[in-house]
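User: quick one, fold this
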Amino acid sequence: MLRTLLVLLTAIPLAGADDPWLKVRQVKSGAELRVYKKGAKQPMLAKMDEASEEKLVVVLKNEQVAIDKDQIDRIDYRPPHPGGRMKTESKSTTESSDTKAPTSSTSTALTVQSKPDFETIYRRAPAPPQK
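Assistant:
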């Protein structure tokens, strides 16, 4: 019985492994997407809203748009930036000598980190060959 349960539990994650659309459905709302539609010359830059089995719902500027899954060639996703875009580094030094009182100095540097690159999370499967 335990062995059967273990076999079933290990097989469950594999069921979704063949479905590339599953990654799209797992993207959090608000994430940046590049959506390549069939026949379009340029991708749409949008924010994720939600995805169902048949549609992808995104926000373009301030408008919600639903795109049928069969109209999408590819979707790229920009992963969130861990820790935000701003990075702060502080450095403190203390110097002392025999003749003077100790001196200390502190410097802080603030840098803007670039956004991570887009990653392809969905690519429509090629059509089966005609017979």
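User: anything notable?
Assistant: Residues 2-17 form the longest helix (16 residues).
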